[in-house]
UniProtKB/TrEMBL annotation:
<protein>
    <submittedName>
        <fullName>Transglutaminase superfamily protein</fullName>
    </submittedName>
</protein>
<dbReference type="InterPro" id="IPR032698">
    <property type="entry name" value="SirB1_N"/>
</dbReference>
<dbReference type="Pfam" id="PF13369">
    <property type="entry name" value="Transglut_core2"/>
</dbReference>
<feature type="domain" description="Protein SirB1 N-terminal">
    <location>
        <begin position="49"/>
        <end position="163"/>
    </location>
</feature>
<comment type="similarity">
    <text>Belongs to the UPF0162 family.</text>
</comment>
Amino acid sequence: MTTNAPSLGRLQGMDLPRFEDLAASTDPMLDRLALALAAALRPVDVEGALATLDALGEEVARALGGADRTPQAEASALTHVLGTRHGFHGDTEQYDRPENSLLDRVLERRRGLPILLSTVYVEVARRAGVPLAGVGLPGHYVVGHFGGAEPLLLDPFAGGLPLAGDVPWAFVRPWTPQQTAMRMLNNLVPAFQRRGDLTRALRAAELRLALPAGEDELARVRAELVALRAGLN
């Protein structure tokens, strides 16, 4: 078990509001919220991460050029730049490693969980003027292009290919940044626990209290906090 408190909340390169402050805001930007989440747990080069997203967004915009910007063309450009050219794919070897849930590390490694790879797609798309949003499904997280008559779903974990299999359309809707951050933290808490890092598991669990949630979910989070604190004593 980790006994020394980790260095938490340190930023490199630029200032960023605290995760708790962004989580309480009306419409936080997903990239800032995800980076603030990571910075609450370990040092983060925020400026470098944002510069990477900016550069990828410019590549997608150039790939689209003057072409007819249909949902299919925009989705194809994202898949080509991120999935094919830069190799963003799911980490199938160490799926639950904490690095797969930290945006700056996913940008560096080009590997991650579905929800973090989807965050990369959403933020790169936003910079290229493409209306993409994260979509939380049972047991999976993908992105949806909502600019056409029907949503066009892509699976960033599979390199940006169209989502395969039966689609549970009842769950297909854009997720808010806060909903996405809650799911990221739900992944991080057990990932840290399994590695004996109870200090960071506790910190990740505490961050969830800053996010809007229903009473049942808040009760579950509080109960988990009690158990984690008991494990540290």
